[in-house]
Specification:
The chain is an alpha/beta fold and 277 residues long. It has helices at 19-35, 57-60, 67-79, 127-130, 158-166, 183-197, 248-255, 265-275; strands at 4-11, 40-42, 82-90, 98-106, 109-115, 138-142, 145-151, 171-176, 200-205, 207-210, 213-216, 220-222, 228-231, 238-245. It is globular and about 50 Å long.
């Protein structure tokens, strides 16, 4: 396993409902990132289709693996890159059950996926109208280390990140479609999730305007001590290459021993307390 890796925060604006064009952009930026030494390129939530597609989601969703993941697998093989991107996933057991999914592929092909667990359905959000929630956290062993997958609103729920970290994740990626009104929340919470779990966190957000909803970008790499190591521009497309040094995890875990000091019995209390809400 590599001790130091370079990742590309591929902050893009997706073309609405145009998978072909968005796949071309993913390929173009993956090639560019590889040329700058990156081993892993991370694209935003639902970057395959764009975020605001409403009922068109039923025509755009695909199974995983499926046609679009095959295209990205070929890009990964051609570039020697690992790639994470978001897409609407069609269940292979039903005809209209859809998940908001993060996909991880590498030079060896499809590695794994994560189905968004928390679906915002309030104010401008209507995800529960279209998506079924996922039920499992996800972290995968790769030659670039153990990589965890999370999506957007999950960042408001520390238990998701704790469980992902306990699965061995050294780098947790958060692909997102966060609108501008939530910017301050995400800047606080991404730092908190990294710090409390002594883990690298890569947040990659959508940018642009879709049906009046503005996405703010601001993608970032956060250290295991909560420091912002690299940051993309606000409100415009950007490609930021940054480095993860896993050796930093040792010092962080010793200096901030939150994992050592975990109290497992409290998880049962959390479960009981939640059931009483």
């Amino acid at each position: 396993m590599e001790k130091k890796i370079k990742i590309a925060l591929a902050q893009i604006s997706s073309k609405r409902e145009d998978k072909k064009e968005n796949l071309k952009k993913i390929e173009r930026l993956a090639i560019k990132a590889r040329g700058q030494g990156a081993n892993l390129a991370i694209f935003p939530e639902l970057s395959l289709t764009s975020y605001v597609v409403r009922d068109q989601i039923y025509e755009l969703a695909e199974t995983i693996p499926g046609p679009s993941t095959k295209v990205v697998e070929n890009i990964a093989k051609k570039t020697g890159m690992y790639i994470i991107f978001g897409m609407p996933e069609l269940s292979d057991k039903t005809k209209a059950t859809i998940f908001n999914t993060a996909v991880l592929v590498g030079p060896e092909g499809f590695i794994g996926k994560y189905r968004k667990m928390y679906l915002p359905t309030h104010s401008v959000f209507e995800e529960k109208r279209y998506f079924r929630p996922g039920y499992q956290t996800a972290a995968f062993e790769t030659s670039l280390g153990n990589i965890g997958l999370c999506i957007c609103y999950d960042v408001f729920f520390p238990e998701v990140f704790r469980l992902t970290r306990l699965m061995g994740a050294q780098l947790i990626t958060v692909i997102s479609a966060s609108p501008a009104v939530r910017r301050s929340y995400f800047e606080i919470l991404t730092a908190a999730r990294a710090l409390e779990n002594t883990v690298f966190l890569a947040f990659v957000n959508l940018v642009g305007v879709e049906d009046g909803l503005q996405f703010w970008g601001g993608s970032r790499l956060v250290s295991p001590t909560g420091d912002v190591l690299a940051k993309a521009k606000y409100d415009e497309e950007d490609l930021v290459i940054c480095e993860v040094d896993y050796n930093d995890l040792i010092a962080a875990e010793a200096f901030i021993p939150t994992l050592r000091d975990l109290r497992p019995e409290l998880f049962e209390e959390l479960k009981r307390g939640s059931e009483l809400l």
